[in-house]
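Quick illustration, no need to memorize.
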Amino acid sequence: MDNIKISVVIPAFNAELYIEKAIQSILRQTEQVYEIIIIDDGSVDQTCKIVQKIQKDEPKIVLLTQQNAGASAARNSGIHEATGDWILLLDADDECSEELVETYLTKIKEVREDISVIYTAYYQIDDNSKVISTQLSGKRLNSTEGFCDILIRNPIISPSGVLVNKKHLNDMHGFNTQIKYVEDVDLWVRLLDSNYSIEYIDRPLSYIRRHANNTTSSMSTSHNAEKQIMDQYGLDYIKEKLYKRSYTMEKNSLDFALFLIRYKQWKQCEELLENTQILEDSPQYNSYCFLKSIINIEDKRFDEALDECEKILVADVTHGAALNNSGVIYAMNGNKEQAIINLEQAMLLFPGYLDVKHNMTLIENSETDKSLFRFTLRELRPVLLSYSTD
């Protein structure tokens, strides 16, 4: 299509189990890419040999090798080598639909403006490439609002399958090698902070594999890395961005309360919520009650926290975080029967919900140490991401 050149960049570290599947998913594209650059990041398994075997019949494959330096450095090496106009990022353990490249090329033609990034909806897959989730959807992200959206709840769940304008990548000096986890989030935030936009296609054409060796297999690791990225900007800058958005004051205030909690500014958050009036018929009401419940949990005012959770569940019986947190409080209060009802309901709605699994195990083992129970401090995504550990 009009000679748009797409270079695929695949960082690989000990990826012998999956690298061939990743490469084949690119080779099967209905619109061919210009080149496939694979960066072996110091693997000590058969990754290189597998790539070299495929490379014999595929001259568009370029194999680079380097000492282990991490995914960011590996991607940067591939980006530097790439000669295409666009960089399609793919992790060595992931795959994509054969229509991904064609869909991206069509999007570039349709938009006809200076696009920075394009991504699609996702499926999560297991070791055998079987789909293990419903569609994980995203949305278009634009400058200030997009900057805030990424930091509140990043909809781009992986850089894998994302297409990036090489010129804009170079403007940003690529990935920040000082950030070891969710380094892609840092890049998206920097692009949005520079007023670039990120386009979205609502089709699940990227397949993210979940297994024990994922770099960010731990939820806590991911959250800590997100905090590192936020710290580069600081709470005052984030607040300024939030309140510049074209949302209601109530919406902006509730989102700022989320950041106050993540920065453990409990008193300031409580005061903000006290001065924010949200009516029961507001679409923000459940979030308002949930934030109040988290403040109460932090202050160990568990009965008040339970009241807020019950308000949420009257309005929405599918609110997973409220089900978990109320279940924990029931268990702590000795109401084991109700605790199990709430936790089982949460697990039914959200299979793989790690906090619930943990709490159910404690109840089954008649654990008496209340400090071991886990509260969920953020409202859940519509579809949970799979983590191998917590």
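The CA atoms of residues 72 and 111 lie 29 Å apart.
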